[in-house]
Design goal:
This protein is mainly beta. It is built from no helices and nine strands. It has one domain. The strands form two sheets. Strands 1, 2, 3, 4, 5, 6 and 9 form a seven-stranded antiparallel β-sheet that branches. β4 and β5 form a beta hairpin.
Amino acid sequence: MYAIIATGGKQYRVQEGDVIHVEKLNLEPEEGVEFPVLLLGGESVTVGKPYVKGAKVTGKVLAQVKGEKIIVFKYKSKKNYRRKAGHRQPYTRVEIVSIQA
């Protein structure tokens, strides 16, 4: 069985045991988290309007991590304008514990 969940403005296809990186959640490691279910799949497919009633996906927060560094470089030719900045997006690593239909 799999489910499509929504969090942080994005959608993820998950199964039990999956480890996913989602937009940062203000939770401590080992805390539980529940996600709304948009679609349940398996033998038959159930589509929610907008969510599937009575269905939930439970996860466990593993860690708060940062993504790969991205370099932002602004430049205007012949004007001696140069700006360099780096950015690392914060993510939350979540393990999917159960899918309840």
